[in-house]
Design a protein that fits this description.
Elements lengths: L1 H4 L3 H18 L1 H6 L13 H9 L6 H13 L5 E5 L3 H12 L8 H15 L1 E7 L10 H7 L5 E5 L4 E6 L5 E14 L2 E12 L2 E10 L11 E7 L10 E5 L6 H26 L4 E4 L21 E4 L5 H20 L3 H4 L5 H4 L2 H37 L4 E5 L9 H13 L5 H15 L5 H21 L1
Antiparallel strand pairs: 1-12, 2-3, 2-9, 4-5, 5-6, 6-7, 7-8, 10-11
Helix pairs in contact: 5-7, 5-9, 9-10, 14-15, 15-16
């Protein structure tokens, strides 16, 4: 196990970058606590001055808002999940899984949204498929369903948790090691627990180490094997970890992080300079030796040829810095394919034509559709693997996530009516049109009701076909 606990060289190389991306996304007090890693120290800057700047640090989080905007827009309407087949047990499980996919009350849509946000921040995200441990082996499918052993669920992980792995020549995982850390309060005090979960194509092993005041003295901190056995996807001969990977060109945090850091340093430098400019320094113009003490409760005595004044910046560099901050802000939005928002704070936005704005948003829509295809493909692979492991005789399809214009539902009805009037004579086309309209209008209805409506639509169309 010692070999598996070791960190992958690629993980060691990217761990600091992933932590930086996490801080830039979250911002707030978390970034302020780690500000010494990001706020650059000026050449020969006194340490006490740098500490003062750290204590006054602030962060304008544009990249975090961009990531959240993409997630909110992409999932403005839930993905349309549909199944095909007459397997009652599989349909029942599907309805339960969509409403609670992690046994903690998270819907599948909410989990996919969370995975998408993590992928935009880290470049990828992971879901592990697991099954509840059964006390005794089941002798039939009914017994397995009754005991809950076939109730699959998922556990989310980030690239910061995947510390070691091995790939086969095709790029599929041969084995992975996931590391998690947590604090647990026991009767004797707090203990820090670290877990390593090893999965290959057939088996799993879980190791744990404990440190702290209540941890046992013998072997404290040494990994100890806690569980082992075959995992739920062993019959598929695959590692039960599914990856949602974002293409490098669409990895938003990677595209905007350096610009965001540059904006962070310059905005804080400008704020510090303006603050220091409020405390003007006295200047004495005199050829005599100066020994007087100057303060709020003191006075000074000058000779006939002496002069007194205050240092005050002219402000030209401040204006240049402010203009540069605006340009950096617009560049952050531009590289993230949000040109229409990049111009929102500049005077050019008011002179931009309507057609130009539509072209800019058309580019954003294409990026959103690419994201939607990635999420749908990820969801299909996940669900199909779970159904195969459960041996359900049903198929699954995922659609939607391709309409981002906020419009009236009557427009969708009109478009659907135009398609149906074409008289294509395809019952499958009618089924899909009716299903999509129903799912879009009833997006907040429970999944079991959506499935029932879909079955009734299929039955109705088939009956019309038979009568016609």
């Amino acid at each position: 196990m010692i070999e598996f606990i070791k960190e992958h060289p690629q993980y060691r190389a990217r761990s600091a970058t992933l932590q930086k991306y996490r801080d830039l996304y979250i911002g707030g007090e978390e970034l302020k606590g780690n500000a010494s890693h990001y706020l650059q120290m000026r050449p020969k800057e006194p340490l006490d001055v740098y500490q003062q700047r750290l204590s006054r640090v602030f962060y304008e989080n544009y990249i975090g808002s961009i990531v959240d905007w993409y997630a909110a827009t992409l999932f403005r309407q839930e993905p349309v999940l549909g199944i095909e087949g007459n397997d009652a047990a599989g349909q029942r499980f599907f309805s339960e899984f969509v409403e609670d996919c992690d046994l903690r009350g998270s819907t599948l849509t909410a989990m996919l949204r969370q995975q998408f946000v993590s992928a935009l921040v880290y470049g990828s995200s992971y879901l592990l498929v697991d099954f509840p441990s059964a006390g005794a082996p089941a002798h039939s499918r009914a017994q397995e369903e009754a005991s809950g052993a076939s109730r699959a669920y998922v556990v989310d992980y980030t690239p910061m948790d995947l510390v070691n792995w091995s790939l086969d020549p095709r790029g599929n995982y041969e084995w992975v090691v996931l590391r998690t850390e947590s604090n647990r309060q026991l009767a004797k005090g707090w203990v820090r627990e670290t877990r390593w979960s090893y999965y290959d194509r057939q088996n799993f092993r879980v190791y744990a180490s404990k440190t702290g005041s209540s941890a046992p003295g013998d072997g404290e901190g040494k990994p100890v094997l806690e569980y082992e056995g075959k995992h739920g996807l062993a019959k598929l001969n695959r590692v039960p970890l599914f990856e949602l990977s974002i293409a490098d060109g669409l990895w938003m945090m990677n595209k905007g992080a350096l610009l965001q850091l540059e904006h962070f340093n310059k905005s804080n430098a400008l704020a510090w300079a303006i603050t220091m400019g409020l405390f003007a320094m006295p200047v004495i113009y005199s050829e005599r030796e100066w020994k007087q003490i100057v303060g709020e409760s003191f006075y000074i005595q000058l000779g006939p040829d002496d002069r007194f004044g205050w240092t005050e910046p002219e402000g030209k560099v401040y204006q240049l810095a402010a203009e540069n901050l605006v340009r950096l802000q617009e560049e952050i939005y531009r590289v993230c394919y949000l040109m229409h928002q990049a111009r929102g704070t500049s005077s050019a936005a008011f002179s931009q034509s309507g057609s130009s704005k539509q072209r800019d948003f058309a580019i954003t829509q294409e990026v959103l559709r690419a994201y939607g295809d990635m999420v749908k493909d990820f969801a299909k692979k996940l669900l199909r693997a779970i159904f195969a492991a459960r041996e359900d005789s049903i198929g699954v399809n995922v659609s939607g996530m391709d309409d981002f214009d906020i419009g009236d539902f009557s427009n969708d009805l009109a478009d659907a009516g135009s398609l149906l009037k074409m008289g294509a004579g395809s019952p499958t086309l009618k089924k899909q049109i009716y299903r999509k309209l129903a799912s879009k209008y009833l997006c907040d209805v429970r999944q079991d009701i959506k499935d029932r409506i879909g079955q009734e639509i299929d039955q109705s169309v088939e009956e019309v076909k038979a009568d016609g």
